[in-house]
Design a protein that fits this description.
By secondary structure, the chain is α+β, with helices and mostly antiparallel strands. α1 runs antiparallel to α2. It is built from 3 helices and 16 strands. The strands form 4 sheets. The chain has an 8-stranded antiparallel β-sheet with strand order 11-7-8-9-13-5-4-15. A 3-stranded antiparallel β-sheet has the order 3-16-14, with no helix packed on it. Strands 6-12-10 form a 3-stranded antiparallel β-sheet, with no helix packed on it.
């Protein structure tokens, strides 16, 4: 699988590289050798970790996407439950939530083919993303997609305690296509899916899923 640096991280990594290079160059001339090597080693590890966070794997969903809801992100399943969705549907839905750590890929893919009906950003808090209240109280973006077969699902990008920037490429009228990216959340976060009741859920609690690869559910 081909992996590149995500466009959302290129400017950050460039600036970080310049800062680290300047710090290490200054220490080379003024600090004791042992201090220089220790800090140079620490800054190199830090740069590698940040670079890893912005990795951008190019993936292709391996199955027939018809009626499938595909994992929009990497992470761990932290919720599978019937809830009242009060923002758009205003009725009961099945909520499936994926929690991402800083070690996960943080790009999001479209979970199914169709058309984007709604794309809205909401300001909010920055509590830990694994908490249930984060779905409605944290900084978040809501994307509603209508499938080619007429089924409608809601996907929510949620900022966490560290994540402070949500990027959403989807806009009303956008054609949603599997294997294409919907957005990116920087530095730790969560994604919620709200599916029709009766959907065939194919994942379990605490299961690790892979964005654009793992099938979350089949819509009936």
């Amino acid at each position: 699988m081909r992996v590149t640096i995500h466009k959302e991280g290129r400017s950050i990594l460039f600036v970080l590289f310049l800062i680290i290079t300047a710090i290490d160059a200054l220490l080379y001339f003024i600090a004791p050798v042992i201090i220089f090597f220790l800090i140079a080693f620490a800054t190199a590890i830090f740069f590698i970790l940040v670079t890893n966070f912005f990795r951008n794997p190019h993936r292709i969903y391996p199955e027939d996407p018809k009626n499938a809801v595909i994992a929009p992100s990497d992470g761990e399943i932290v919720a599978i439950e019937e809830v009242y969705e009060g923002e758009y549907f205003k009725d009961k839905r099945i909520q499936v939530s994926i929690f991402m750590t800083v070690l996960n890929v943080h790009a999001q893919w479209y979970p199914m083919n169709g058309e984007v009906l709604v794309s809205e950003h909401h300001n909010g808090r920055f509590m830990a993303a694994y908490l249930p209240k984060s779905s409605t109280e944290n900084e978040r973006s809501t994307v509603v997609i209508k499938s080619d077969a007429g089924k409608v699902i809601l996907m929510r990008q949620i900022a966490g305690a560290i994540a402070r920037r949500i990027v959403t490429y989807a806009h009303p009228g956008t054609i949603a296509k599997v294997n294409q990216q919907l957005g990116f959340i920087k530095f730790g976060s969560r994604v919620d899916l709200f599916l029709p009741l009766g959907s065939d859920i194919l994942v379990k609690m605490h299961e690790k899923v892979t964005g654009d690869i793992t099938t979350i559910a089949r819509l009936k």
